[in-house]
Request: fold
Amino acid sequence: MRKLDWLRGLSVLVVEDNELIRAVEVDLLRALGCDVAATANAEDALASLDDPRIALLITDVRLPGPFDGIALSLTAKHRRPELRVLLVGADLEHLPPEDLRAIADEGMRKPFTVGEFEEHLANLARHFDGAPA
Reply:
């Protein structure tokens, strides 16, 4: 079994204001068999979080508007504690590990390669029931 097979059928919400990065993330997730919704800002993402099928939120740290990715992650975790979060950003090294763990289940630095993206997705398996660790 491939280490990413557990993602097949998972509903994922991608929040990324960079159109190219968002398209790459969405395409990769769909190729892995995920059901993917995507938006460019946190305000639209908040409405999508009411969908109980969404199991994973992948969000950029820096987003346009009054909510950034950190505020979105905190709000999402408060509203849906079972929701898993992958936080993506260039500034993650400035967050102490304990602060990052309070915000997200996994953090990924930008820029990233396809291999790094897949590695972080594989790392998230430990947070899902029935997924291989």
Remarks:
- The mean pLDDT is 91.
- The helical segments are 19-31, 42-48, 69-79, 97-103, 114-124.
